[in-house]
Amino acid sequence: MSVGEGRQRKPDWIRVKAPTSAGFAETKKLMRRLNLATVCEEAACPNIGECWTKKHATVMILGDTCTRACAFCNVKTGMPRAVDPLEPQHTADAAAELGLEHIVITSVDRDDLPDGGASQFVKVIEALRRTTPSTTIEILTPDFRNKAQAAVEKIIEAGPDVYNHNLETVPRLYPTIRPGARYYASLRLLESVKRHDPRIFTKSGVMVGLGEERLEVHQVMDDMRSADIDFLTMGQYLQPTPRHAKVEEFVTPQAFNAYAAIARAKGFLLVAASPLTRSSYHAGDDFLKMRAAREAQLAAAR
Q1: Which of 225, 229, 245, 262 fits as disulfide partner to 71, beta carbons 3.0 to 4.6 Å?
Q2: pTM for the complete prediction?
Q3: How is 233-271 classified by DSSP, letter by letter?
Q4: Does pLDDT of 241 surpass 50?
């Protein structure tokens, strides 16, 4: 894997239009007014135009500066600022103003904090429950390195509807793509969510196109099912800047369909796999599908 050799031309199936709608501008204005960061902007998500036009935004709490430097991620690295005490209520206010039925909350890694930032997730969940009680809550957390057990327990007690934590890639590529993390620690984190509260849906995602082998991806699916993960998302890795890990392959839509078919056969409640799939893309619709799938499963068991 090499870094910084310039970016290849994207195939037709991966190109998206630049955002220009009024809805996009309104969403951006609201985020700036409430002093909120979004992963949509910081991670240079290709779906930002579509999502923000529909007034769907993924709030990134704990600031906009990460203490890690993963080779795939566009979020800036450095020493973060102090945690903003107004952020939880501002997040809830944004959900209310956008009229969100489902909200996704993610964060940067905060290895500098004693609890990795878990208490801020709790405060955000509590603010949302107070302000927009009918909004379902999906959190996408970091791995809380060396603090996972206490952090996860604290967050589960607050009762999110979906707990997402991305494995990102296959174990072999962790040293170059996700050097600050450990594959099996991330798996154990997701497993512990289910152990503490089986009612919470668990979700995880992987990127393809980084040089992984097909059978390695199948093994990740098996590992996820062993950890009882409900929902798998798979999308194409896109190189955010020339200094990031380069794209080794643009995986075709047909290959994504094949991965999705295999994942469904392995027993996931829901699978989203396409070149432009991202963790929070269509998350609200997917939550309803996942809930319906679980209800159908329980009814069949009865």
Answers
A1: 245
A2: 0.89
A3: EEEE---SSTTSBPPS----HHHHHHHHHHHHHTT-SEE
A4: yes
